[in-house]
Amino acid sequence: MKAFLRKLCFPILALFETEDEEKYVYRSSYRKILAAVAVLFIILSGASLGMTLNSGLSGGFIPAIFFGGAGLVCVIVAGLGTDQAVARIWKNR
Q1: For residue 79, which of 25, 11, 9 has the smallest C-alpha distance?
Q2: Is the pLDDT of residue 27 over 80?
Q3: How does pLDDT run across 33-46, given as a tens digit for each residue?
Q4: Residue 8 belongs to domain spanning
Q5: Whole-model pTM?
Q6: Which of 51, 76, 78 is nearest to 63 (CA)?
Q7: Can you give the C-alpha Rg of the chain in angstroms?
Q8: Which of 20, 36, 15 is nearest to 85 (CA)?
Q9: Relative to the CA of 23, which of 6, 49, 51, 81 has its CA 20 to 30 Å away?
Q10: List of residues 6+ apart from 41 with CB closer than 8 A
């Protein structure tokens, strides 16, 4: 199942994973923090969407889409990405 999901999310993972074996710094806490940040982004997206729908104004869709997209990328990299991809999110080389 994980192999299928990695193939499905390849366009996003390809941005953070490279073929060359460059030096990077990775700690297991980076993946946990990335997952926590993903949850926070998704909560922000849901709150923004809820307030937008409640108020009837369409300007709130922009932050909802932005935070939702950022949360989705963080979830994909934290769940399916390699150690190198997680380290590249944090810009550790």
Answers
A1: 9
A2: yes
A3: 999 999 999 999 99
A4: 2-89
A5: 0.86
A6: 51
A7: 15
A8: 15
A9: 6
A10: 67, 68, 70, 71, 74
